[in-house]
Amino acid sequence: MPRMQLDIFADSREVMLRNDVLDALQRREAAAARAAWDLLHREFADAETAIPLAVLIEALAPAEGALPNPAAVRASRLQLTEQVAPAALRVFGDSAAAAWLGPLWSRLAERAAGLPFRAGHSEDHAAALWLRAGDWPAAAQAVARVESWRRIPAPLGWMAEARYRLEGLDATWAMLAELAWLSPGRFDELRRCLADPLLDRLHARFEASYEGEGRTADLAWFPAWTLTETPALAPLLGQAQASQQAAPEQAMRLLLNLLALERQGRHRDLVERRKDLRDLNPALFAAYIRTR
What we know:
The protein has helices at residues 2-26, 30-43, 50-59, 70-92, 94-112, 126-133, 136-144, 153-167, 173-182, 184-194, 197-209, 222-229, 234-237, 247-264, 267-280, 282-290. It is an all-alpha fold. α6 runs antiparallel to α7, α8 packs parallel to α10 and α12 (222-229) packs parallel to α14 (247-264).
């Protein structure tokens, strides 16, 4: 019994010292956290959380100015994702870890702000880092500084995510369509990231009913197919800017025209445009005609 009481006391002491470190980390006071950690480590050198706590304390150290190139940004980004983030997850738990990491991502984004967009280092651009920080306005501003951003998949996807977080799905449909045409794979990644209920339901129906090739590339046809399933989205999808005029974009424009002709009751023109759709993509024509 005396030994059990001693263990309980030791456990309580260790928990108290660990909580002192956590409290200082939550306040983002590196010096106080270091002092509390030193005491914890001195009394309980084998504490399970000692190493992850030390990693978090080190992450609070002051950063030195702007980063000179994408390689330097990448090194800092990998340190955050591979070392600091796992430590924060272990120490704080999922949601609290994300909140604690936010200022670190913001600091890295600020240090990368002066670097231009480079396709080979897209994840090291300030806009991508602002998104990780959860600062949607800053991300949108960073994208807007990329020349021709609406013609490049990465910044277009970033802007679509920022717009979604700020204004919701209705404000994002046009850019989602453009992204699907430019990069079906990046569109699918963004769809998974957004986890929007309506978008996911439409995607599930598309996967179940569209008779394509069964590959991610089929998602280039998703905007056009969406009009066969939900014609009410025509005004929003119709705001998509002209892209590369590839077949999936032509199909969506054609479906917008078909829907307009149906409303106007122009049956002769409707027959001709339906033939055009059938010739362009029989699978999409079959999806369209099933709803008529």
